[in-house]
Design a protein that fits this description.
D-Maltodextrin-Binding Protein, domain 2, 7-stranded mixed β-sheet, 5-stranded mixed β-sheet, 8 helices, 2 domains, globular, Fructose-1,6-Bisphosphatase, Chain A, domain 1, 281 residues, alpha+beta, 14 strands
């Protein structure tokens, strides 16, 4: 079996995301980030646009037969509803963090097949950390979850829970863990530590075994979660709705996600039970 780090498709995706990162960081160093606002009042910067241009061109060259859905190139459902495969792209996840210049933003690229994310690649431009996961064989790449930093590449997996239990929380989209959930978690794990971060960094930290869970109750879109879901699942974890079902993509007119949970297989049932009890009450 070919080492994934030498596979030409992985290398091509890595180059695309590195090129997009370089464009983002060039703008990040400027005084003027080119901030504008979309119709929904969410911010967009010159870096979002530059990275999107690079990623779109790179993916079209790599896989000309696979269409692309991007936050900066939204396609109507009537056009995309019959797409069996598609790339789902967020060229700059964590735009608010980018504007705040706190370094907590990422680039997300996912491949979706029949609604399921089967490949994900996430890159953190400020730290030069990359994450890659494949849940099913694709173009000769076997299922795997890896992290790279410069020339160092390692296999990653979710960890068994330990003390303290680390909960990733949102930097800009609170709230933090509900107090009653924290008390529920403390029944099984005495110490619970909350660690705020922006963008898909939260899911990647769980995939690599640094943290244990993330509960998201604020708004997200499909391009925010698809790539990290593939990585998390490839690493042995799960990204699921409160029902326990994994997210599926390009299945509805809306691109908005509902609430979701990211965790390993031991912690997730505790949170799902907490959700069920809230609904029963």
């Amino acid at each position: 079996m070919m080492d994934v780090s030498r596979h030409p498709t992985f290398l091509a995706l890595q180059q695309i995301i590195h090129d997009a990162s370089d464009a983002i960081m060039e703008i990040y160093q400027k005084a003027d980030l080119g901030v504008e606002h979309k119709s929904d009042d969410s911010p967009v910067t010159a870096a979002d646009i530059a990275a999107n241009r690079i990623i779109m061109a790179g993916l079209k060259a790599l896989t000309p037969d696979i269409p692309i859905l991007s936050e900066e190139a939204v396609v109507d459902f009537e056009e995309r509803k019959d797409w069996q495969q598609l790339w789902v792209v967020d060229p700059l996840d964590g735009t608010k963090e980018f504007i705040k210049r706190n370094g907590e933003f990422s680039i997300n690229i996912a491949l979706v097949a029949d609604g399921a994310p089967i490949l994900g690649i996430v890159f953190l431009p400020t730290t030069r950390e990359g994450y890659f996961g494949v849940t099913t064989e694709w173009q000769g790449i076997e299922p795997c979850a890896i992290k790279w930093h410069d020339d160092d590449i390692e296999n990653i997996s979710v960890r068994e829970p330990r003390e303290p239990l680390v909960a990733m929380t949102s930097r800009s989209h609170g709230p933090a863990l509900p107090q009653d959930l924290k008390e529920t978690l403390k029944e099984a794990y005495e110490q619970v530590r909350e660690l705020p971060k922006g963008s898909s960094i939260k899911g990647c930290r769980i995939a690599e075994g640094i943290a244990d869970l993330h509960l998201r109750r604020g708004p997200t879109s499909e391009w925010d979660t698809a790539a990290q879901q593939a990585i998390i699942e490839a690493a042995g974890g799960m990204l699921v709705a409160p029902s326990g079902k994994p997210f599926r993509y390009n299945q509805r007119d809306t691109l908005l996600n509902g609430h979701f949970i990211v965790a390993g297989p031991e912690v997730a049932p505790v949170i799902l039970d907490w959700y069920q009890q809230r609904e029963d009450d």
